Amino acid sequence: AQSVSQHNHHVILSEAASLELGCNYSYGGTVNLFWYVQYPGQHLQLLLKYFSGDPLVKGIKGFEAEFIKSKFSFNLRKPSVQWSDTAEYFCAVGDYGGSQGNLIFGKGTKLSVKP
Amino acid sequence: DGGITQSPKYLFRKEGQNVTLSCEQNLNHDAMYWYRQDPGQGLRLIYYSQIVNDFQKGDIAEGYSVSREKKESFPLTVTSAQKNPTAFYLCASFQGYNQPQHFGDGTRLSIL
User: Fold this and answer.
1) Which residues contact A15 (CB under 8 A, 6 or more apart)?
2) Most exposed: A87, A100, B54, B101, by fewest CB within 10 Å?
3) DSSP string of A16-28?
4) Mind listing the pLDDT tens digit for each residue in A10-68?
5) Do A43 and B33 touch (CB under 8 A)?
6) B60 CB near a chain A CB, below 8 Å?
7) Exposure string over A34-73, b if 16+ CB within 10 A, otherwise e
8) Beta-carbon pairs below 8 A across chains A and B
């Protein structure tokens, strides 16, 4: 069965620190990869996505993620976090081979940024 | 603006009661989804629908039911058979290949 694993449940950083959130997935076929963010009290928003092409994907608010196929990984990075990045981050994998759009989500990583 | 509207924002259920959560979208998307979000559990798929009058069970469908009579609407009923309904429920829609899912603001369901 497909699964998505996010390594950290809760990450606490100071402002200006660098961020890397791990995401690994298990699926043998072609995948599409996503990072979603949920700010406190807000709905889930797309941060960035990978479908094909350049494995280094740039998203909103200075976030980027790198798809490493050999490692089944799609880690999220940001060089310098801000207090406003405090949120919960979800990695998701989609199997669009069947064009169904179904996503498998990781359990989420809560990021707390101290001012 | 196009989007997904979930209502109500907060809902309380009594023992033995069925409650229905509303999800409406004006994005003209064919596919719609219901997820349950619990702390530390991520999002788990309850039901999804690829097209009007058709829907499929997700990973945790027991105790839930859905209908898809119109393209815009995908209501979720939490039945009395769902013994642990307290959670945050998210509705999403999907346009098609190589597109992300779009999410509503969610409904928080609690037990009285």
Assistant:
1) A80, A81, A82, A83, A113, A114, A115
2) B54
3) T--EEE-EEEE-S
4) 999 999 999 999 999 997 777 889 999 999 888 889 999 998 889 999 999 999 999 99
5) no
6) no
7) bbbbbeeeebbebbbbbbeeeeebebeeebbbbbeeeebb
8) 52
